[in-house]
Specification:
Length: 520
């Protein structure tokens, strides 16, 4: 049996893989436009504080669940308490739902990178409305993720992270350096980004920073439970969590250095007001930035290639972790060999991503196709997972570790050599501080869906209410399936994965493999 297939080989490999999961497309468009709307550096300061208060503690809780059980999210949560296993199942369902739209967005980054020298400015509606093009690049991106996960933890995920994360940092340094040297408008862009304006930071802005910190670390979607289960015994998870949070914060900060000076330079030379640049949502990445690159006649295409390659890397390292979270459960529960399990999960999610891509493309062209609760399917899945389901799963992870496993055992799991009186601080964070802050994220997220702000006035939204009901319906379904079929059955662990590998090796020696399932 090859132990290397079910664990990371080094601490740095584990940390880079987890940091890659944390740094995703949300850092590239979510952070800049939220920063611009909430006082620049004031938002950045609150964001970094929330990484410390919410993100680090919740990440440690998920790592503890995974390492303690050495198993998939369902088994890890069952080991903490059988009555908590349902949220382990939710932590498998959530990444599957995320993949259904993340494959689509990843395909967009691949398309934009490949099309850099032909020019991307003004092509967003055209590409989004071309069903064949969207499906092709969705599949291409999904195949990249499949290839990495099928190669295993050490041979695929860790090796890829060691290559792609430094590459992404290198590209970001190049783009940031160039952006800072553009000349006219750069100082205004830096002032806009780095000068704190706390008068523009509202209570809703602080909650937005808390949510951004939470989501940027990939919490509540099973990925960190999964990666924690693969962490070697010598990995000190206190240190690793600090490294991951620092890397995520550093890369996010550098994204601002790359984007704001370039945007304000474009505004200065083109005569366009910065307020008219459209820095909100995906428009920043797929509409505004291509215009900025197109306005740089000599180096614009090269910068576009670098930026969208970086975006594709960020998307890939994130989607690898959520694909692995689902694949791990399928391998361990159903005894399916890794390559086949990864292929099965990818195929199902790609098939479901097709209507998501078509619905989103229609919306980008002012049309309505397969909308539900007044939202296109991509926007709907994003709201269901990010706004509602992920905070619930992270909350229960904190409660499971803080109140059931206990902070003393948690500290022993995190750092076997001991860590002084760290259990007292960890206990305070996991029992009280972090759960309260997560509940605030959840409640205000739900309130904003049900009572959205329109022209300065909050009005009831039946569509928002439908999204909330749908999301909690997913949680209810997870609970029903778990208590009906999984509570009293073996849901597998990492040792089962080793057994599957050994059985497959024997079958390869014996001749062509038959069937998908492995004997017990």
């Amino acid at each position: 049996m090859e132990k290397k297939k079910t664990s990371f080989g080094t601490s740095i490999g584990f940390e880079l893989a987890a940091a890659g999961s944390a740094v995703g497309l949300g850092n590239l468009w979510g952070f800049p436009y939220k920063t611009s709307a909430n006082g620049g550096a004031a938002y950045l300061i609150v964001y970094l504080a929330c990484i410390l208060l919410v993100g680090a503690a919740a990440m440690l809780a998920e790592f503890v669940l995974g390492r303690r059980a050495r198993a998939n999210p369902v088994s890890a949560c069952k080991q903490a308490s059988e009555s908590f296993g349902w949220f382990g199942l939710a932590a498998v369902v959530i990444p599957a739902l995320i993949m259904c739209y993340y494959f689509v967005l990843g395909g967009y980054t691949v398309k934009y990178a490949l099309n850099s020298f032909a020019g991307n400015a003004g092509n967003f509606p055209v590409f989004a409305g071309n069903a064949g093009d969207v499906i092709l690049h969705t599949v291409l991106f999904a195949l990249l993720a499949l290839a990495v996960v099928a190669a295993g933890v050490r041979g695929g995920i860790e090796k890829t992270a060691k290559i792609l994360m430094p590459t992404m940092l290198f590209i970001l340094v190049i783009i940031s350096s160039f952006s800072l040297l553009l000349g006219e408008g750069v100082s205004e862009g830096l002032a806009f980004y780095l000068r704190p304006d706390f008068s523009a930071m509202s209570w809703s802005g602080a909650l937005s920073a808390m949510g951004q910190a939470f989501f940027s670390l990939s919490l509540g979607c099973g990925a960190m439970i999964c990666y924690g289960s693969y962490s070697g015994k010598k990995v000190n998870l206190f240190r690793s969590t600090a490294v991951i949070c620092i890397l995520d914060s550093l890369l996010t900060f550098m994204v601002g250095l790359a984007i704001f000076p370039a945007l304000f330079h474009y505004a200065a030379v083109s005569g366009v007001s910065p307020a008219a640049l459209g820095m909100g949502g995906m428009g920043l990445m797929f509409i505004t930035l291509p215009m900025v690159f197109a306005d740089m006649p000599l180096v614009g295409s090269s910068l576009s290639l670098l930026f969208f390659t970086m975006a594709a890397i960020a998307a890939l390292t994130s989607v690898i972790s959520i694909l692995e979270a689902v694949t791990q459960f399928v391998i361990q529960k159903f005894k399916i060999f890794r390559t086949r399990a990864a292929l099965l999960v990818t195929a199902v999610c790609v098939a479901l991503s097709v209507p998501v891509g078509l619905s989103f493309g229609a919306a980008m062209n002012g049309e309505s196709l397969m909308n539900l609760f007044g939202r296109n399917l991509l926007e709907l899945l994003d709201m269901i997972t990010n706004t509602i389901l992920m905070p619930v799963c992270a909350l229960f992870a904190c409660l499971a570790v803080g109140w059931i496993i206990g902070p003393r055992e948690a500290v022993r799991t995190i750092a076997p050599e001991g860590d002084g009186k760290a259990h007292r601080l960890l206990g305070l964070m996991l029992k009280l501080v972090t759960p309260v802050l997560i509940v605030l994220i959840e409640l205000f997220g739900i309130f904003d869906l049900i009572m959205p702000l329109e022209n300065g006035v909050r009005r009831f939204s039946s569509g928002g209410c439908g999204i909330v009901v749908c999301a909690y319906g997913v949680l209810l379904l997870c609970a029903l399936v778990y208590f009906a079929f999984l509570k009293n059955t073996n849901t597998g662990n990492n040792s089962d994965e080793l057994l599957v590998d050994a059985l497959e090796a024997e079958r390869v020696k014996a001749g062509p493999s038959r069937g998908w399932y492995r004997p017990e």
